[in-house]
Amino acid sequence: xxxxxxxxxxxxxxxxxxxxxxxxxxxxxxxxxxxxxxxxxxxxxxxxxxxxxxxxxxxxxxxxxxxxxxxxxxxxxxxxxxxxxxxxxxxxxxxxxxxxxxxxxxxxxxxxxxxxxxxxxx
Length: 122
Known about the structure:
Layout (H helix, E strand, L loop, with lengths): L2 H4 L3 E11 L5 E9 L3 E6 L3 H4 L9 E6 L10 E9 L7 E9 L2 H17 L3
């Protein structure tokens, strides 16, 4: 399997918001790890510290973020896990697997991450 088809993962700091399908929950965070198949988000949203993570794991969210010049509107993802962040008392990391992403955006996202990794900027 080639590196491009497998997907490269890059380290970034990208502000973003997760919105559930009913717009009842919005979670602000920062994408800290991004690939063409998913991302990891760091958040200090206190709701994720006090609720049982089983309530949110498996839910689908619409992702709202800007990355270079890509059209990222319409990317949806499923929350795969919620883990303590670097400061466990204050933050959480959320693992998200993309469930809906335009194939061209996926391809371009992977190419950008590969380019940034080669340059040492991801």
